[in-house]
Amino acid sequence: MNHSAEFQFEGGRDGVLLIHGLTGTPTEMRMVGKGLNRAGFTVVGVQLAGHCGSEDDLLATTWEDWYASVEAAANDLRGRVDRVFVAGLSMGALLALRLAAVRPGWIDGVGVYGATFRYDGWSIGWTGRLSFLLPIFKRLGIGRQRSFIEQPPYGIRDERLRAQVSAAMFAGDSEAAGLPGNPWHALAEMVKLSRDVRRRLPDVLAPCFIAHAADDDVASVANADLVARRVRGPIEMLLLADSYHMITIDRERRTLIERSADFFGRIARDARPVRIAA
């Protein structure tokens, strides 16, 4: 059964759509959402199709379904605000970039947090590095019941927070902490999404705020560099020295929130129409 962990915080006429990662939940974006809302933004945290339920729920969906969740949420938000910004973590960053590439008229700026095109961080074993083979396995029907079980440090440098998140994850609270493993067939969809978005990066014309942990355990900084090289909009980079992959909840989340609010706020101010007195 899929519960909804989506959240909405009403604010001003500038909106931010926040997108969680693969097997994750909107909860991992909630603190960023609250911070951006305090800075005056209307914020929506979308729940991707197939997430926050069982492994079977996730396996019943494809990357196209996940992207459709994003586009529907963005379209809804557009009806309520003057400008829409989009930001995502990990796979969510890829979905955010895809939205900006496919719907350039909708999106005024992109937050690219811990973008994951390849699982090439220091905690990823050889099995994760062979994930490019998974679409072939899925097509052949191999490994439907197999998962890569998450390994310490679970993307979190803060040890106290890591203990809380891993306890919830392995207790089966998928709505709060996501699934404890990445099913092979879901990862196969992620690989296909990654290939699609990589091709589309030159179509991203909106300004991009690219934030990444310098010591990311899941996806190396090469993923952030790929975005910086390929997109055609202006970019700003932030490398975080005291976090791992989950930068939206780890030790430097306040820095991430402040820099994101400042980045989106500057775009919104620059785009304001000048009111001519009658």
Automatic annotation (TrEMBL):
- Top enzyme class of this protein? hydrolase
Q: Which InterPro entries match?
A: AB_hydrolase_fold (IPR029058), Esterase_lipase (IPR012354), Hydrolase_4 (IPR022742), MAG_DAG_Lipase (IPR051044)
User: What keywords were assigned to this record?
Assistant: Hydrolase
> Where are the bilayer-spanning segments?
none
Serine aminopeptidase S33 domain span? 16-252
An example of a GO molecular function for this protein is: carboxylesterase activity
The source's superkingdom equals: Bacteria
Assigned EC number: 3.1.1.1
Which protein are we looking at? Carboxylesterase
